[in-house]
Description:
The chain starts with 6 loop residues before the first strand and ends in a 5-residue tail after the last strand. The protein is globular and about 40 Å long. It contains no helices and 22 strands. It has 179 residues and is mainly beta. Strands 1-4-7-10-13-16-19-22 form an 8-stranded parallel β-sheet, with no helix packed on it.
Amino acid sequence: DNHxxxxxxxxxxxxxxxxxxxxxxxxxxxAQFYRSTQTTFSGNWIHDNTGWHAIFMDNSPRTKIxxxxxxxxxxxxxxxxxxCDTSAVENNTADSTTNxxxxxxxxxxxxxxxxxxxxxxxxNGIGIWGGDSILVVDNTIDSSRYGVYVESTLRSSISDNxxxxxKIYGVWLDFSSNG
Length: 179
């Protein structure tokens, strides 16, 4: 309780974070990984944090984030930032971000968001900026400003999602191409 970060790693390889409870951190992220490869988050409960991100991956390819529960975190529940290529975010439940995205990617490629449930995001259920070959499939997004927000991406696909009660748009595509 009341730490800057629950987990912090730089240049880690083949790391498993499994069945942990991370709560009430106050720093920029509850779990921060920089330049790490093949990290798996599975079966964790991350909640009641006032810092920016529940999980923040920076330049960390081949990340797997699956079967986790996120509740009442201030900003983003899951953020993949810069070159988190060939990653998967699957079967997570993200409930109630005060101010931002349920899940997001900024400048990554070959990333899958599949079978997640996202409720009451302050901004986007899933936000994507500057990606290539991003797949958003079979997610349930309820009560966000934008269900799925996509900007400046190439060759991405959004299909078979259930998006309800969006305050502005269910899906927003801006400067994106499938060619």
